[in-house]
Amino acid sequence: MEFKEILENYRKWLSTKHSANTNASRITRVKRIAKHYDILNEYVNDKCESLIYSLTYTKGDVIDGNEPKTDIVISGNYVTGLSSLKQALVEFVSYLNQIGYTAPAKKGHKAFFRGSFDDFKRYVGPKCRNEVNIFCKAERESHNGICEYCGQKAQLQSAHIIERPIIIHDILERTFKTGDDCYDVDLEAFFDLFKQEHMPIRDRIFFLCKNCHELLDKKKTITEQDIRNKRGY
Ligand SMILES: [Zn+2]
């Protein structure tokens, strides 16, 4: 079943749940998310868990100066805006659970990208960002909100030892280059390599409070080695 068809059935299913207005806005929000993410594919991957995580943005994040984890642009308040999107998605996921959605059989064509580095960042970049959020989640949680450098309890930020665009560019250059700023990319192979480049997470990313993150990235008063020293290697 295609997304459109599923959404039509979902509309009927919803009609017994809430008021007509609520249902209409829930559908609109699911469509909105679908413009940025392949919801059914995300559902097949992990029941949309990582996508739901990407839409999670709290008052605490605002206070700590954390950026939203999604590229969806909200006009107005990001906390309430993303929270409504998340609520709509969670309900849609419960519908997919109920109908036992499974992926349609693949047609056997590989997904390819051909173009420049800038276009790759534009079209595939958001997915890369989402993937990094997924890789980091468990590792971040294992730190229990304790900054690796100062040891204070805080909303932790991910400090990348090598920035994402540099990692992406290196992979493209190494494996998929076909001309001057031109790349032919087998996307599945790309994401395998992209994931490998982030492993082990512990050696790629430091989990720091906002202040220490700034000291490392902007003010440069602490170095990577200082943080490694704290870790004891
Ligand atoms: Zn700190």
Task: Describe the overall structure.
This protein is mainly α and 233 residues long. It has 2 domains: 3-99; 112-231, no CATH class. It has helices spanning 3-14, 20-36, 39-46, 49-54, 59-63, 78-99, 117-142, 164-176, 187-197, 201-204, 210-217, 224-231; strands at 112-115, 157-160, 177-179, 182-186, 205-208. The strands form 2 sheets. Strands 1-4-3 form a 3-stranded antiparallel sheet. Helix 8 (164-176) crosses helix 9 (187-197). The model has no long low-confidence stretch (mean pLDDT 91). Zinc ion binds at residues 147, 149-150, 152, 208-209, 211-212.
What is this structure, in a nutshell?
With about 230 residues, the chain is mainly alpha-helical.
How do the strands and helices of this protein lay out in sequence?
Elements: H1 3-14, H2 20-36, H3 39-46, H4 49-54, H5 59-63, H6 78-99, E1 112-115, H7 117-142, E2 157-160, H8 164-176, E3 177-179, E4 182-186, H9 187-197, H10 201-204, E5 205-208, H11 210-217, H12 224-231
Antiparallel strand pairs: 1-4, 2-5, 3-4
Task: From the structure above, extract its key features.
single chain, 233 residues, 2 domains, 3-stranded antiparallel β-sheet, two-stranded antiparallel ribbon, 12 helices, 60% helix, binds zinc ion
Number of domains: 2
Mean pLDDT: 91
Beta-strand residue percentage: 5-15%
Helical run tally: 12
Our Rg estimate from Cα atoms comes to 20 Å
Low-confidence stretches: none
Structural class: mainly alpha
